[in-house]
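Sequence only, no structure available. Ideas?
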Amino acid sequence: MVAVEIETLRNDFKKKIANSLDLVESGIARYTVLHPFTFDDGDHFVILLKKIGSKFILTDEGHTLMHLSYSDLDLGKGGYKEIIDTTVAAFNLHNEKGELTLDIPEDKYGDALFSYLQALTRIADIKYLVRERIKSLFLQEFRSYLADTIPESNRTFDYCHPKLDAQKIYPIDCRMETKGNPLFIFGIDNDNKCQTATNIIYWWEKQQEPFEVMAIHENQEDLNRRVLARFSDVCGRQFSSLPSNRDRIKEFIADKLNGSR
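Reply:
I predicted one. Tokens follow.
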């Protein structure tokens, strides 16, 4: 029975996928490839099948990168360029002044189209990939800054209570030992992290152990106001960003270490 169901599903998948693909003649030796793949705004990828000499190629005629440029992304710099160049190389594409093309090996039309669609999809997701990389870079910078600012004997990254939180459910980004109460330091890069930090602080409050809290935001202005308001109720000292507050944070940490605050 299961084999019959799987075969039915397989046939249905093939039918739906095949029916969503087509070629429409749009010039001499030039065909538009109809397909279901789109950008996040609903616009379809532009894919054309063209015959040049004795070979066929797939091309977007520059549409993919042009479409992404509408989002004010500087595709020629930083992480954007790196992802584009890496994808072009990985899928054997050619980037001719923004036009992405793929030579079709003999009789490998379906394989070529599948590979081309994979490449365009990866490039279309570039802003999300770079956004995740930027978030990761903030947390790396956050930890590196604290490592340079707080003596190693006074800091513990990813601290969890050894007895009350043996399963490590409520970690502190960095615990700093001071002459007074320990200082819990959080790096906040988005709403989810802000909410998680709020819950962790609430849990620690229930353990009735004295501590203080400091937070360094990637960009405090980007946070949801309600999420930030709840966090502000339990966080003693916040810095809106790291780059513009390095000296203030360093001074605050030094005062805590010396017991002057």
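The chain has two domains: 2-124, 135-258.
Hope that gets you unstuck.
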